[in-house]
Amino acid sequence: MDTKRMFELSDKHLMTFTKRYPVALVRGEGSRVWDSNGKEYLDFTGGIAVTALGHSHPKVVGTLREQAATLVHVSNYFHIPQQAQLAQLLCEHSFADRVFFSNSGAEANETAIKLARKWAKEHGSSDRGDIISMRGGFHGRTLATVTATAQEKYHHGFEPLPGGFKYVAFNDLRALDRAIDSRTAAVLVEPIQGEGGVIVPDEGYLPGLRKLCDEAGILLILDEIQTGMGRTGKLWAYEHSGVAPDIMTVAKALANGVPIGATLATEDVARVFTPGTHGSTFGGNPLATAVGVTVFSTLIEDKLAERAGRVGTLMLEALEAIRAKHPKAVKEVRGRGLLAGLDLVPPVGDVVAACRERGLLVLTAGDNTLRLAPALIVAEKEVAEACAIIDTALKAAAP
What we know:
Blueprint: H1 3-13, E1 25-29, E2 32-35, E3 40-43, H2 46-49, H3 58-68, H4 81-92, E4 98-102, H5 105-122, E5 130-134, H6 143-148, E6 165-168, H7 173-179, E7 184-189, H8 205-216, E8 219-223, E9 247-250, E10 261-265, H9 267-270, H10 286-301, H11 304-325, E11 330-336, E12 339-344, H12 348-357, E13 360-361, E14 363-365, E15 369-372, H13 380-397
Parallel strand pairs: 3-13, 5-6, 5-7, 7-8, 8-9
Antiparallel strand pairs: 1-2, 2-3, 4-10, 9-10, 11-12, 12-15, 14-15
Helix pairs in contact: 3-10, 4-10, 11-13, 12-13
């Protein structure tokens, strides 16, 4: 199918939920992708922090082929070996004792919300169920998770929204302390706000959250859908703070692009889920979890979290050099590991387009932030290449 015809069919038959770039990507390898016209791009979107092992990773391809030829799907009424193995890996390499598998980050957060509310009612009173989340955060597009996403632009047109959610400012412990009351069940927060603009909180923020939750007898839920799986230089972003959550949500990079979500919890919290209280038809099926086992094992064996920290430091240093070179265009560089944001003065869309024209794919975030989330296997020379393109794109967009 030619590119023009593809665009026509998309415009005619697909619901309009985003403004697509005028590009159709058809092939990928490592940190590079090619469009339907044969143009090559350096991919620093990572499928929005999904393809941690890059495109067409041989181990992922091998697992997909083998599992597709063996067994793709069975019901969760039966034991699934790959599911049990992935759950074991996640628990052995985190704070958690138990895992529930779903199909996406939004579903993982839905599960976390339900789990927290059920726990609160069994450890408090029947009206205890409020979830406190942070302004600027992002937790998904279902009605519950879009409500937990404390950004009004995502709420417009979907009212009435479900009740039981309260919002406070991110990185503000006093505001949270004032918001907690007898109806509060849990606090839901990203260790670093990704969609909100790559906002890194103060070092004492997560420890402070943990302390406030413990004092109030409520749960701490960490949304590590974007920050987990080695993205920030440690396996989980919470490890930078020295504290652990009660519930954690994971998705995106867990199966390198095969849809999967996971909600991790301690034994005390997880035990409130009993037969019939929650479920999923596709969640944790043999195909998704087999790939998840391969991805997670590769992440551990190849020490990709440590690599992300090392290469990410080089990337942030290069971006700081760009900021110093373009002080009227770049206000601030933020990030940790291989998750970075440049707060811009010129419209971020112009810079994204200028990068794309020069063979670099990047993301946006927040109000006017350029976001980078390359594969954890990205080479140092590819980081240098990407930063050189950003430099020239800034010249073009903000001469």
